[in-house]
Write a structure and sequence with these properties.
The chain crosses the membrane at residues 21-47, 59-79, 91-113, 119-143, 155-181, 201-220, 232-249, 255-279. Keywords: Membrane, Transmembrane, Transmembrane helix. By secondary structure, this protein is an all-alpha fold. The protein has one domain (2-288). The protein is 79% helix and 0% strand. It has 15 helices and no strands. It is globular, with a radius of gyration of 20 Å. It starts with a helix and ends with a helix.
């Protein structure tokens, strides 16, 4: 939404109301994090561990973890509110595109990378943010295609999806290349654990589910067709979710896999139910008072 303000164009004209509607679901996202905060000791190996360095002990402790999480959701809600109001948008967007990547990188380390405290990657935050953006874009593209008239400049949205898929491939490959070439044992072991006991099949699957849409979108016909973009967007969402599971689940047992699948399905169904309602709310809010009456 902030980038739409700073880089105006057809993509913003076509998806602005859908994106504004999605920001109304920020409290749902925050509520979904509450069980994690309550059960931190069951999720994160560093809770109660006194062996790491002084910096890790300070950084990876419950109070700073919860504080950074609250800051991230608080900033997301405040920025969404400011942008939906459509007053002072340029200043808000300029500040937000600096603030949100910083906060998102911090919580990427907290929420996911700290599941294995010995692993470190400077690109992890960017990869996390890119995954968030591509899932959000595909969901909102499906919402836009499923409600109302078809966008006039559909090829622009298809081209943007192609760009996001190219960025995804870059952010996936570059950390792997750097870590493997440096051959640092803890980081290489992180990849080694994900190439055995069936997880390599997950990697091939999410690679194909993103790779086939990437190749298809090289065709102008696919980029400009709603009948193509709908299944391609759905495939990219599934690919991103499998990639997320591949990142966090290896070595955690069957219960963790079941919990992951249940949370994805449950939150997904809530999103499917609530996003159209939120979009209709935003459409009514933007209509003139006479039209609402």
């Amino acid at each position: 939404m902030m980038m739409m303000r700073l880089i105006p164009g057809a993509w913003g004209d076509e998806m602005r109301l859908s994106v504004e509607a999605a920001t109304l679901l920020t409290p749902l996202a925050a509520a979904a994090m509450v069980p994690v905060l309550i059960g931190m000791a069951a999720v994160y190996p560093w809770v109660g561990d006194r062996s790491p360095s002084a910096f890790k002990l300070l950084w990876l402790s419950p109070v700073p973890f919860i504080t950074r999480t609250l800051l991230r959701f608080g900033a997301q809600w405040w920025l969404g509110h400011r942008m939906r109001a459509r007053r002072g948008q340029t200043v808000t967007a300029g500040a937000g595109v600096v603030l949100m990547p910083v906060l998102t990188s911090l919580v990427a380390v907290d929420w996911l990378m700290s599941l294995e405290p010995d692993f470190a990657s400077s690109a992890f935050g960017l990869e996390f943010m890119q995954r968030e953006v591509i899932i959000a874009f595909c969901v909102l593209l499906l919402l836009r295609l499923g409600m109302g008239r078809e966008p006039r400049r559909l090829g622009v949205l298809g081209g943007l999806l192609l760009t996001l898929l190219l960025l995804s491939a870059y952010f996936l490959f570059l950390p792997f290349f750097v870590i493997w070439s440096s051959n640092l044992a803890p980081n290489v072991e992180w990849y080694a654990r994900r190439w055995g006991t069936g997880w390599e099949a997950v990697a091939w699957t999410f690679g194909l589910l993103a790779g086939v849409p990437l190749l298809a979108l090289l065709l102008a016909r696919a980029r400009k067709s709603a009948s193509w973009l709908k299944p391609l967007s759905a495939a990219v969402i599934l690919s991103s979710l499998l990639q997320l599971g591949w990142t966090v689940l290896p070595g955690r047992g069957g219960l963790a896999v079941l919990a992951f699948c249940a949370s994805v399905v449950g939150l997904g169904l809530l999103g499917v139910a609530l996003l159209p309602m939120a979009l209709r709310h935003r459409v009514r809010a933007r209509l003139p008072a006479e039209a609402r009456r």
